């Protein structure tokens, strides 16, 4: 293990660790820590861990992917009601639910798609590339890098009607009450993807909780294509979970 991953301590590039399963990553981190003590580079190892957000616990506590079954069921029930509440904005609500984005980000994405589709849509990977628009999606504490699409979501983007966040939220609350907010779609998306095998680090990356420098290192690696395909493969069953009757 030391031979395989020891280079991380000298190159300060821990991006490969982010692709490992949590339990495996902790094992590798322990091995690197031993090496750091032996060669006198403990401070450098600490700096690397902080830069990449590496934790000793195999679980990621800040991502909304650890909801209990009861909590998830409650959110899922509300999500289904929200999707059925505004027929004139059904396409918009479905896109928000399937994207995993924050509501404001999803609305920005829909508008940007119509303004600059050729640059925004990566047709080869079938993703929206938010990182190309840092002034919109790279805020200090909230970021979005890419959104994985399938043909159903592409159809939603083509047909959804424009609407503001405030108008959408107000309409939902008038019909369903203040405890029904479209922001719950993001939690449902993350929990569903986690339950279907997506690692917390991958969810963090797709929902913008990973530092931009680390995202860019991952984006140009071949194994990201496998991650994208895994997410895309789960979108159809997520539609079923949400009661979306699409093809």
Summed up:
The protein is mainly alpha-helical.
Structure report:
The chain is mainly alpha-helical and 247 residues long. The chain folds into two domains: 2-52, no CATH class; 69-242, Intergrase catalytic core (hpI Integrase, Chain A, Orthogonal Bundle), CATH 1.10.443. The protein is 63% helix and 3% strand. It is built from 14 helices and three strands. It has helices at residues 2-5, 7-11, 22-39, 42-52, 69-85, 90-99, 103-120, 134-137, 151-159, 165-176, 184-195, 200-206, 212-219, 223-242, and strands at 121-122, 127-129, 146-148. Helix 5 (69-85) runs antiparallel to helix 6 (90-99) and helix 6 crosses helix 7. The model is unreliable at 59-66 (pLDDT under 50).
